[in-house]
Amino acid sequence: MPAYDNEGATISVEDIRDAQLAKIDEDLATRRNRMLKPQKSTIASRKRQAVCVRRAHKKYGPKNNPNVILDGLNMTVPKGAIYGLLGASGCGKTTLLSCIVGRRRLNSGEIWVLGGRPGGPGSGVPGPRIGYMPQEVALFGEFSMRETMIYFGWISGMSTKEVEEKVDFLVDLLQLPNPGKQVKNLSGGQQRRVSLAAALLHEPELLILDEPTVGVDPVLRQSIWDHLVEITKGGKTTVIITTHYIDETKQANIIGLMRGGRFLAEESPMELMRRYQADSLEDVFLKLSVMQNMGKRRRSSILADIVEKVEIPAIPDPTALDIEDGDIGEISGEFGDNVSMSSKGRSVVADLTLPVEALPPDDDDPKGYIERIKPMKLHHMKALIWKNFWSLFRNFGLLSFIIGLPLSQMVLFCLAIGHYPVGLPVGVVNHEVPNITHGVCSYNKDICPYIDETSEWNLTRFSCNYLDFLSRRQSNLIYYPTKEIAMAEAVRGKSRAVLVFPANFSQSLQERMKDPRHASNYTVDSSEIEVHMDDTDKQVEWMLNRDIQLSLMEATEHLATICGLPKKLLSIPVTFHEPIFGLEVPNFTDFAGPGVILTIIFFLAVALTSGAMLAERNEGILERSLVSGITGTEILFSHVLVQMIVMIFQTSMVLIMGFVFFDLTIKGPVGWVTVLTLINGLCGMTFGFVVSCICDTERTATYLALGSFLPMIMLCGIIWPVEGMHTILQWVSYFLPLTKSTESLRSMLQRGWSISVPTVYSGFVSTSIWIFVYLTASILLIKFKKG
Ligand SMILES: Nc1ncnc2c1ncn2[C@@H]1O[C@H](COP(=O)(O)OP(=O)(O)OP(=O)(O)O)[C@@H](O)[C@H]1O
After folding, report:
1. Is 746 in the pocket of ligand 1 (CB under 6 A)?
2. Whose CB has fewer CB within 10 Å in the chain, the N or C terminal residue?
C-alpha cells in the first residue's frame, strides 16, 4: 500500500525502506562513535558491578619461563546477572575465580568484588556475601549432609533452625538423598550437589560456582539452572558459573568466552549466536577461536573488519552504566583488545536499570575497622570447634592412633630403654684355679686368711672371691682353659670381655699390698687381672668396665670386713658417696625419659596438626572455609582448642604410665611438669601449622617433619648431654625448641627444682617463644601464601 508525505506526494515502499536503513546507519554510526570515543572509568563505576576485573595478569612458574594464565583480562559482571564463564580445560577459569574470591593474587591488574577489593575491608569478600562452590568437592566425608550444612550455615551466621529449614528445600531442589547420610557414602554426583547446596544455603549476593553441573543428569541440570534464573530475577543475587557444557549457558545473561588468557567475547549468548550466525555457542566459540588465531597474525585488519560487521546493541540507559570518557582503556570483549566494545555498553539481559545500591563502606569506615581488628568471631569459632571435634572423634582409627601411640611408645621406652644390661657373656681364664668345672670356683668365703701363728696373711683363691662378686653383676661368666681359646671365642663374638687371672694372682696381690715399695715387676704384673674388652658398644664397654672395678672393690671390702679391718682399707682411696641428685645406680631411662616424653608429645602434635590441616587444605575445605569468611587465626585457634583436649589426655596417659607404672624418678612439682609437657605439645602443634603452611602435599610435610625430628633427637640433649657436643653444635642446640625444655623437665624430675630456678623457667620461656614464633609464622603464611 502506498504511503503519502505531507505534501501529498506518493512515497514508495522502497523509499521507506531506504529511509529506515539510512536512519539505522546513522544510529549505528552515532552509537559506534559513542562507544569508541575515549571514555573514563571511575572507581565508582567499577564498584557498582558485582565483579569487575581490569587488566588482570596472572602467571605461574619461574620468572624465566612463566606460564601466563591471565593476560590483561577484563571482565565485567553486572549485579543480578548470571555470568557463564566458558573456556577450554586449563585456560584459567578456576584461577580467575580464585583471584575473584581472594584466594589467589594477580601479578598485576585489579579486581573489584561487590564494591571492594577481595580481602579488603568493605568488600565482604571473603565472607557470607559470597557463596563459593570450588571445583573439588571440598566437604567432610565423615559428616552427614545435614551436619555439613550446619557447619557452613553457622559460618555464615545462620541459626540451626534456619539451616534445617533450608536443608529441606535444597534436598528437594537438588534431589538429594536422606540428609542424615554421610557424605563419603554418597556418589560423586551427589557429593557435588551437596557442595552446591552448601554454596546456595545462605542465599549470598554473589554465587561463584565452579562446574556445579558435572555429573548431573540433564533434567536436574535444567532445574539447577531454573533455580539460578529464579534467584537472580530480583537483581539481588549475581551468579558466576563455569561449565564444560557450553550450550547449557544459553540461560546465562552474559557469557565470557575465555581463551589465551583473555576473553574472546563477553556478551549475551543470543546476541553472540546472532552476531556470528551460529546455531550453537560452541560454533561461536570455534569461530572466535579461529578469528583470535588469525588476529594474532594480522590483528588490525581483522579488527577493522569485525568492528565494521558487528552490530552494536542497544544500551538501556547509558547514564546508569556510568560510562565516562576514558573507559575505553579497560574494556572487555572480543580478543581482549582495547578497541572493541565495552561490556558495559552491551545489551546485557540483566536488568541494569535497577536502582543502584548505595556503595559499600569505604576503607576507612570505623565499623570495618573494628571488624578488622576483632580477631575471632563467635559463630565462626563455634562452627570450627564443632567441626574439628567431630572430625577427630568420628574417626575411630585416628583416635586410637593418637591415644595409643604415645602410650605404647612410653611403655616400650620404659621396658626397652635405659636398663642395665645383665647376662653379658664374659670369658674368664683363671690360671689360679686351672680346672674350674661347671663354673664352680670354691674358696673359703667367710674365713680371714690371717694366720695367727705367723701373724701373716695367706691369701689364696682371691680370684674366686672376686669372680663371685662379679657374677652377681654379670651372671654369664664363661670359663676357658687358656687365654688363646678365650680370645679366639671373643673374636668370634662369643664374649664381650675376657678376664685373665695369673697363676699366683692372690699371692702376688698379697705381696703387693703388704710391701708395695719392695714389690718386683713380676709381683706387680702377676697381681693384675688382664682385661680384654670388645669396645664396639661403648655403653656395654662402659658398664662392664664399671662392673669389673666395682666387683674388685666389693671383694676387697669383703676381705677387710671378715678380717675385722676398716672396710675401705684395701680398696682404692676414692669414695663415691650418695649422689647429690639422681640415683646411685645409673639409670639411662631417667636420663632419657624427659627428652623422650617431650619428643613423643611434640612430634605427635606435629603429625596430627599438619595432617589435619593438609587434609583440609588438599580436599579444598580450607579454601572454602576461608572464602566463607573464616580467618587463618580462627582456624588455627580452633585446632589448638580441640587438640588441646586430646593433648591433655595424651599427656596424662604418658605421665601416669611413666611415673606411676614404671616408676620413673619424679622429685619436682608435678603441676609444672604437666604444664611444661602440655605447652611443649602446643609448641609441636604450632610447628605442625607451619609445616602444613609450607608444604603442599602430605609427602613433603612428612619429609619436613622427619627432617626436623631427626636433628632434634640428635641435638636437643635427649640421647647425649649437650655439654659433650662441639661448641658450635651446642649453640645450635640451644636454639632448638626441645633443648631447654628437656633440660628443664629433667631438672624438675630428677633434681626436684622448682619453677624459680633459671634452668627450669628457661624451658618454659624458650617453649613459649617458639610457640609465638611458629604461630605468627603460620598466621602470616596463611594470610600471604596465595597463588
Ligand atoms: N598452583 C599452580 N601452580 C602452577 N600452575 C598452576 C597452578 N594452578 C593452576 N595451574 C595451571 O594453570 C592453568 C589454568 O588452570 P585452571 O585450573 O585455572 O584451569 P581451568 O580453566 O579451571 O581448567 P578446568 O576447566 O580443567 O578446571 C593450568 O595449565 C594449570 O596447570
Report:
1. no
2. N
Q: Is the CB of 787 under 6 A from ligand 1?
A: yes
Distance 625 CA to ligand 1 centre (A): 21
Given a cut of 80, whether residue 446 has pLDDT beyond it is yes
CA of 295 to the centre of ligand 1 (A): 25
Determine whether the shortest distance from the Cβ of 134 to ligand 1 is under 6 A. no
Cα separation, 365 vs 362, whole angstroms: 5
pLDDT at 421 over 90: no
Pocket flag, ligand 1, residue 93 (CB < 6 Å): yes
CB of 94 sitting under 6 A from ligand 1: yes
For the chain, how many residues are written?
A: 787
Q: Is 69 in the pocket of ligand 1 (CB under 6 A)?
A: yes
Q: Once rounded to an integer, what is the mean pLDDT over residues 583-610?
A: 87
Q: Convert the pLDDT of each residue in 461-473 to its tens digit.
A: 899 999 999 999 9
**How many angstroms separate the Cα of 183 from the Cα of each of 151, 618, 660?**
13, 17, 44
89 touches ligand 1 (CB under 6 Å): yes
Please tell me the distance from the alpha carbon of residue 509 to that of residue 513, in angstroms, as a whole number: 6
CA of 248 from ligand 1 middle (Å) equals 23
Confidence label for 7 from pLDDT (cuts 50, 70 and 90):
very low
Q: Per residue in 531-565, is it b (16+ CB within 10 Å) or e — as a string?
A: ebbbeeeeebeebbeebbeebbbbbbbbbbebeee
Cell numbers found for residue 45: 563505576
Is 66 close to ligand 1, i.e. is its CB under 6 Å away?
A: no
Q: What does 740-758 look like in DSSP terms, one character per residue?
A: HHHHHHHIIIII---TTSH
Give nearest CA residue, ligand 1 atom 16. 92
Mean pLDDT of the chain: 81
Please say if the pLDDT value at position 114 is more than 70.
yes
Q: Which residues does residue 71 pair with via DSSP β-bridges, in sequence order?
A: 57
User: Which of these, 743, 781, 726, 708, lies nearest to 591 by C-alpha position?
Assistant: 743
Q: Is the pLDDT of residue 429 over 90?
A: yes
Ligand 1 atom with the shortest distance to the CA of 87? 21
Residue 137, all three cell numbers = 568437592
Which of 59, 65, 68, 94 for mutating ligand 1's site (highest number of atoms within 8 Å of CB)? Answer: 94
Q: State how beta strands 108-113 and 51-60 pair.
A: antiparallel
241 pLDDT tier (thresholds 50, 70, 90)? very high
Dist. CA 109 → ligand 1 center (Å) = 19
Ligand 1 centroid, distance to 398 Cα (angstroms)? 33
pLDDT of residue 19: 52
Q: Are residues 763 and 745 in contact, defined by beta-carbon separation less than 8 angstroms?
A: yes
Greater confidence, 509 or 374? 509
Cell of 654: 604418658
Question: Which residues, 6 or more positions from 657, have their beta carbon under 8 angstroms from its beta carbon?
Answer: 407, 410, 411, 414
pLDDT, mean of residues 745-768: 94
Pick the residue whose CA is nearest to atom 26 on ligand 1.
89
ipTM: 0.96
Q: pLDDT tens across 249-281, in order?
A: 888 999 888 888 888 888 888 888 888 888 888
Closest C-alpha to 628, from 282, 35, 202: 202
Q: How far apart are CA 302 and CA 337, in angstroms?
A: 12
Give me ligand 1 centre to Cα 635, in Å.
Answer: 26
Q: Specify the DSSP element, H or E, that contains 787.
A: none
C-alpha of residue 69 to centroid of ligand 1, in Å:
8
Contact 619, 137 (CB under 8 A): yes
CB 209 within 8 Å of CB 248: no
Nearest residue to 235 (alpha-carbon basis) of 113, 352, 112, 77: 352
For residue 91, report the distance from its CA to the centre of ligand 1, in Å. Answer: 7
Nearest CA to ligand 1 atom 6: 60
pTM over 0.80: no
Give residue 372's pLDDT band: very low, low, confident or very high (50, 70, 90): low
Res 672: pLDDT: 95
